[in-house]
């Protein structure tokens, strides 16, 4: 027999008032809610009609990675000076270019060399 006392509703969670067990709101056609722990039964009248509205802000769920994002960003002032090589620029013919390398492909393949002309700003890359 279902008891007339309503289940305890906290936010979107429904608890058994007898034992405190979290009740499963499976959404069946029955108008009785059964506690799996103590076998108490409750009428679902008023329980299903509960509307829960939640809000959160961007700061509600802080990410450890997001909080450290400033550590990896570099400004133009902090950027390390790139190495200079005597290489002719294909665009303007200037005799010096800056370069840096990165390992973009698999470890058993060569690095990618990025060139930047100091005079005209022309950029290109070469896979070694």
From TrEMBL:
A single MF term (Gene Ontology): DNA-directed RNA polymerase activity
Binding annotation for Zn(2+) 2: 89, 92, 117, 120
Main location: nucleus
Entry keywords, A to Z: DNA-directed RNA polymerase, Metal-binding, Nucleus, Transcription, Zinc, Zinc-finger
ZnF locations on chain (C4-type): 16-38
UniProt keyword annotation of Transcription present: yes
Lineage top rank: taxon: Eukaryota
Chain residues that bind Zn(2+) 1: 16, 19, 35, 38
GO biological process: negative regulation of transcription by RNA polymerase II; termination of RNA polymerase I transcription; transcription elongation by RNA polymerase I; transcription initiation at RNA polymerase I promoter
Subcellular location per the Swiss-Prot or TrEMBL entry: Nucleus, Nucleolus
Gene3D superfamilies, per database record: 2.20.25.10
Domain TFIIS-type per the UniProt entry, residue ranges: 85-125
Gene Ontology CC entries for this record: RNA polymerase I complex
PANTHER family: DNA-DIRECTED RNA POLYMERASE (PTHR11239), DNA-DIRECTED RNA POLYMERASE I SUBUNIT RPA12 (PTHR11239:SF14)
Described function: DNA-dependent RNA polymerase catalyzes the transcription of DNA into RNA using the four ribonucleoside triphosphates as substrates.
Family, per entry: Belongs to the archaeal rpoM/eukaryotic RPA12/RPB9/RPC11 RNA polymerase family.
Protein name: DNA-directed RNA polymerase subunit
Organism this protein belongs to: Mucor ambiguus
């Amino acid at each position: 027999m279902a008891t007339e006392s309503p289940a305890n509703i906290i936010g979107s969670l429904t608890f058994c008032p007898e034992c405190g067990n979290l009740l499963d709101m499976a959404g069946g056609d029955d108008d009785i809610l059964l506690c799996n722990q103590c076998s108490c039964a409750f009428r679902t009248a008023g329980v299903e009609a509960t509307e829960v509205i939640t809000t959160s802000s961007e700061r509600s769920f802080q990410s450890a990675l997001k909080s450290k994002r400033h550590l990896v960003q570099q400004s133009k002032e902090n950027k390390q000076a790139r190495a200079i090589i005597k290489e002719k620029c294909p665009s303007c013919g200037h005799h010096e270019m800056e370069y840096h390398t990165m390992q973009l492909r698999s470890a058993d393949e060569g690095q990618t060399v990025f060139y930047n002309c100091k005079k005209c700003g022309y950029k290109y890359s070469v896979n070694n």
